[in-house]
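Input record, target 12 of the design panel.
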């Protein structure tokens, strides 16, 4: 196994172990709202970021593997800083909401800031367990991450390559 893969796996298991500890009361179940309006009002009341999962529920009525796997994983405790909303984009109202949030395809995840003024994260496509963990930890405060600058610095530095 390559060193970078080993580091990623180690980080993933460490995150899941640290946040997946239970107090003995059973699994940490988090409510996923299907009604955007209710989820929005609760996020506004509790001053929490809103995490919206846009997905197209197939004719079978089953939700995506990402959603099912996330609910059952030990990483589900990472969801606690968020108000969660799952929107079925197979309905006209779901497609309209996805369009308003500029969801490029399905499944898509959108996270708003805790003041519900702007989108601070948007991603399209399936997410691995590591992707979910990094996303949930990174945006849990409901604040946009600082911009990374790739511009040259005026400070002198030593390169050890």
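The sequence produced for target 12 reads:
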């Amino acid at each position: 196994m390559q060193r970078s893969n080993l580091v990623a796996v180690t980080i993933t298991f460490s995150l899941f172990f640290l946040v997946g500890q239970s107090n003995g009361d059973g699994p940490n179940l988090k409510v996923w709202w299907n009604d955007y309006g209710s989820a929005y009002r609760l996020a506004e009341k509790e001053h929490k970021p809103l995490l919206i999962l846009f997905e197209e529920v197939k004719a079978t009525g089953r939700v995506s593997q990402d959603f099912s796997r996330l609910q059952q994983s030990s990483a589900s405790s990472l969801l606690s800083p968020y108000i969660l909303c799952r929107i079925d984009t197979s309905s006209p109202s779901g497609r309209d909401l996805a369009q308003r949030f500029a969801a490029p395809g399905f499944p898509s995840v959108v996270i708003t800031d805790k003041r519900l003024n702007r989108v601070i994260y948007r991603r399209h496509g399936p997410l691995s367990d590591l992707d979910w963990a990094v996303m949930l930890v990174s945006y849990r405060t409901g604040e946009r991450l600082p911009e990374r600058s790739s511009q040259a610095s005026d400070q002198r530095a030593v390169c050890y390559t």
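Helices lie at 3-19, 36-46, 65-72, 92-100, 129-138.
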